[in-house]
């Protein structure tokens, strides 16, 4: 797994301190469980702050939690990593951090796009869901009134901010105006924590906004 997009230091610090909203924390935890770079950063923050991941949440990250849910392979240095992401969120494997929660019914929100809520057992400011998009799907150009944290579990998408593959993390907020396009090949499955509303741009987006509301 080659991860190139990471949460910024401020988000990782908030995660380490346990201050982050529960929904966003889950998305970060899933990324961190797959990302050595961020895992090291968080461990260092904890060493400084005297906190532990276990203390920060019920979505605590055991090292390798993400990988253990998939078949493991070895890279050129013999390290173990995940090679088989979920094929379908209904019957395929998901990271254990997600599987430990109840997952709600799938709801279609646009052609080729559906969501399933993650039903967290505590109040969160953000809504957390699995977003499933067919290969080649062009999402509406949109902005956010709040923020949107995304971790790719399978497949890929791209927008002006880059190309995002399995394990990559993406952050969007009101300052980001983007129109993601799902890569060809695999169905794209992302874990998303969204606060505020998604605001489609353009006349078409505004017209169908009530129907794509997540
Ligand atoms: Zn990372």
Task: Kindly describe this structure.
Strands 3, 4, 5, 6, 8, 11 and 13 form a 7-stranded antiparallel beta sheet that branches. A 3-stranded antiparallel beta sheet has the order 10-9-12, with no helix packed on it. It is 28% helix and 28% strand. Helix 1 crosses helix 3 and helix 2 (22-34) packs across helix 3 (36-49). With 214 residues, it is an alpha+beta fold. It has 7 helices and 14 strands. The protein is globular. The structure holds zinc ion (ZN). Zinc ion binds next to helix 3.
* DSSP strand count: 14
Order of helix and strand elements from N to C terminus: HHHHHEEHEEEEEEEEEEEEH
What is the 3D form? globular
Mean pLDDT: 77
Amount of helix = 25-40%
**How much is the radius of gyration in Å?**
17 Å
List the bound ligands. Answer: zinc ion
Sequence stretches where pLDDT stays below 50 over 5 or more residues:
52-91
Largest sheet: 7 strands, antiparallel
Helices and strands: which structural class?
A: alpha+beta
Number of helices: 7
Quick summary of this structure?
It is built from 7 helices and 14 strands.
Draw up the topology in text.
Elements: H1 9-17, H2 22-34, H3 36-49, H4 53-56, H5 65-68, E1 72-74, E2 80-82, H6 96-99, E3 102-103, E4 107-110, E5 113-119, E6 127-133, E7 142-144, E8 147-154, E9 157-159, E10 162-164, E11 169-173, E12 181-182, E13 188-194, E14 198-200, H7 202-212
Antiparallel strand pairs: 1-2, 3-5, 4-5, 5-6, 6-13, 7-14, 8-11, 8-13, 9-10, 9-12
Helix pairs in contact: 1-3, 2-3
The structure holds zinc ion.
């Amino acid at each position: 797994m080659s991860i190139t997009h990471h949460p910024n230091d401020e988000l990782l610090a908030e995660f380490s301190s346990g201050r982050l909203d529960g929904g966003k924390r889950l998305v970060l935890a899933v990324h961190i469980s797959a990302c050595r770079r961020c895992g090291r950063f968080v461990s260092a923050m904890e060493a400084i702050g005297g906190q532990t991941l276990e203390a920060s949440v019920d979505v605590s990250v055991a090292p390798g939690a993400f990988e253990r849910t998939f078949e493991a392979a070895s890279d050129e240095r013999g390290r173990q990593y995940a090679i088989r992401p979920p094929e379908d969120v209904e019957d395929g494997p998901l990271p254990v951090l997600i599987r430990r929660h109840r997952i709600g019914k799938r709801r279609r929100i646009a052609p080729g796009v559906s969501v399933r809520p993650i039903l967290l057992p505590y109040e969160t400011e953000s809504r957390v869901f699995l977003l499933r998009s067919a290969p080649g799907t062009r999402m509406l150009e949109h902005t956010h009134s709040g923020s949107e944290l995304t971790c790719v579990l399978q497949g890929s998408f791209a927008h002006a901010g880059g190309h995002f593959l399995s394990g990559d993390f993406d952050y969007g907020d009101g300052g980001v105006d983007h129109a993601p396009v799902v890569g060809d090949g695999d169905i794209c499955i992302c874990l998303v924590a969204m606060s505020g509303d998604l605001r489609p741009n353009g006349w078409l987006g505004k017209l169908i906004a009530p129907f794509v509301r997540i």
